[in-house]
Amino acid sequence: MDREPLIRRKTAISYKTEEKTVMRGYDLSELAEEGYSFCDALFVMYQNRIPTEKEEKMLKYEMGVFMEHSMSPSAVAAIGVSAGRPNLPCAVAAAVTTFGGVHGPGAAHGYMLDKYLERAKTEGRTVDEMAKTLVDEYMDAGRPVMGMGQPQHTDSDPRAEPIHLKQEELGLEGVYLEFQRALEKHFHARRKKEGRSHVGVNVVGSGNTALMEIGFSPNAAWCLGSVCRGFSCAAHALFNMKKGRAWGASRNEPMVQMIDLSMIKYVGPDDRIVPTQEERQAHARKEKEKGEYKKWVI
Amino acid sequence: MGDLTHKPELNQQKGKIGNLDSSKNPFDYGQREYGTVPLDTKRLPFQWVSEIAYKNVHRIVSRGYDTTEVMEQGYGVVDMLFIDYQARIPLIEEEQMLNYVMILALEDGLSMPAVMSRMVAKSKTFLTQAAGASILAFGHAFGAYSAFGNRLETYMKKAEDEGLPLEDTAELLVKENWDDEALGVSSLMLMDPAAKRMIARAQKLGVAGKYIDFAQKIVAAAQNLSEEPVDLDMLGATGATMLDLGFSPEATWAILAVTRAFAAGAHYIEEIERDEYCRTGQTLTPKDFYDGPDDRPVPPLRDRNNVAQSGICQTLDEWAAAREERKKIIGSGHSIVEEIEDPSKKSGIKKVGKL
């Protein structure tokens, strides 16, 4: 059996021999035998250290509360992909890849915090002052403040404030929580001043703050969140594969299905005649000159 | 709302188009309607139906448990896996065992998920794109937990249905699947004690059950039948333990693929930190790697009819002969046979082989 490496890379993460697999210097099997948890192993993986018990508890809480979110873009993607009945990993991969600039934007939030904290340091300003600057700069520019608001949990994300409280209960308050709390204060104040509705902190705002506080980089924190969601999305896909109908369009189901024909609403160009190949060039030139097509270009 | 409409004038203007008016068509294309189908009011409107979870503005509930309350009560993400997949709170020992399994599944060096993550990272993507790609590495050879688990279940059912001793059934399983990558027994862990340690831990925690027992019988049978030394490998140890923890083969597959994706994120990060991005057209493939046809001139288009070869086979004999020739074209796909089934209930490519 060929056991040569697939690619050659210098790596500081792990090595694997016929005798053992070693991650950041620790034999994985020894780590498990000693009774460390999976969350402990994630600290070793990303931070090269054994965490304190409280830090491990914080990660366990954050990932636990983030894992399942019923119907969100990630679960919908998993279910949508599973409708074609590919192998399950395809549905799970699709779910994880839904995490981007809007759905669970953990890295975006993390980089935002780091950027403004760095400015506070270099500009000699307090955390509170810089949080106000962030809110003003984002809102003046019409940009969404990362970590605030959730389209389904309209008055408060049920996970968000409890994460802040857990972080405080565990005595893990640091500069990130101070900054995030200040950000929320200034965000609420400005919206109130402008006569706008209350928009609460979301799970990224609080959860990512906690993850950054316990030492994870923006991308590492994003990985923990988005990949963790993969667990539950796999369950949703599996439920649909085992107990639902493939394709999602059967007319024999008592309920209209996900992609039943009646679910389609079309708002594009009117029905029109396909030009013959003889007419093609003249038609295409005219259409291009007219330019009406441009309103449909995406 | 739907706006199904017949447009005879439009159809008339269109006239004859290609083969659409052929009498062989089981329809009259010129009479077909335009527009979208109205909402079906005779059936219940579409909703996302789930046994797993629901949420409202104020709560997220999985299998009846409010997930925030679950965490406030001191449970964690590993407990949530039992809740989501099995609708139950696990025993403390089960939670400990799953933690153990997941630590072992987290990192595997530069194996395929890490490689896939790193390759995607080189294209300057989001981390999530790379982590997602790593999950696609899990198939029926690497990370073959579904294939392994389903096979165990199939043979154990056979033993039960036919009253066969498990030892005999294990031997049959080995004989019938000796070359399969998902046997769970191989030479991979002869010098690494991790797989055996996992089984010992499951036994110590009191969570080892019928699957681990059967896996050990498979190992014994394989060792009897093999001329080379073999033993339980990580696939076998992990797969059997997860089944004894109550996870289905498919759930096992998903959980362990996702577990590995946490590390794929670190590999994505390291790839970016240490290396450069890769541009379109940048990567060369040395001619030394190439063993296809010799370099040759492209025939002028006007000579096409002289040099073109038809792929049409009129008789079965022609087809069989052409197939044999096509198998020689590496990369054509003609030398591979798969039976791809609906993986809804039991996932897997029934048979994968090279002719």
How would you describe what is shown here?
The complex is a heterodimer of chains A (298) and B (355). By secondary structure, chain A is mainly α. Helix content of chain A is 55%, strand content 3%. Chain A has a domain at 52-247: Cytochrome p450-Terp, domain 2, CATH 1.10.230. Chain A has helices spanning 28-33, 38-47, 53-67, 73-82, 88-97, 106-123, 127-140, 160-169, 175-193, 203-213, 218-243, 277-290, and strands spanning 14-16, 21-23, 26-27. In chain A, helix 4 (73-82) packs antiparallel against helix 5 (88-97), helix 7 crosses helix 9 (175-193) and helix 8 runs parallel beside helix 10. The longest helix of chain A has 26 residues, at 218-243. Chain A is globular, with a radius of gyration of 25 Å. The N and C termini of chain A lie far apart (50 Å). Chain B has a domain at 91-290. Chain B contains 14 helices and seven strands. Chain B has helices at residues 8-14, 67-72, 77-86, 92-106, 112-121, 127-135, 145-162, 166-176, 194-205, 210-225, 234-244, 249-274, 304-307, 316-327; strands spanning 53-55, 60-62, 65-66, 185-186, 231-232, 336-340, 349-354. In chain B, the strands form three sheets. Chain B has a three-stranded antiparallel sheet. Chain B starts with 7 loop residues before the first helix and ends with a strand. The model of chain B has no long low-confidence stretch (mean pLDDT 94). The chains are: A mainly alpha (298), B mainly alpha (355). At the A-B interface, strand 1, helix 1, helix 2, helix 3 and helix 5 of A face helix 1, strand 1, strand 2, helix 2 and helix 3 of B.
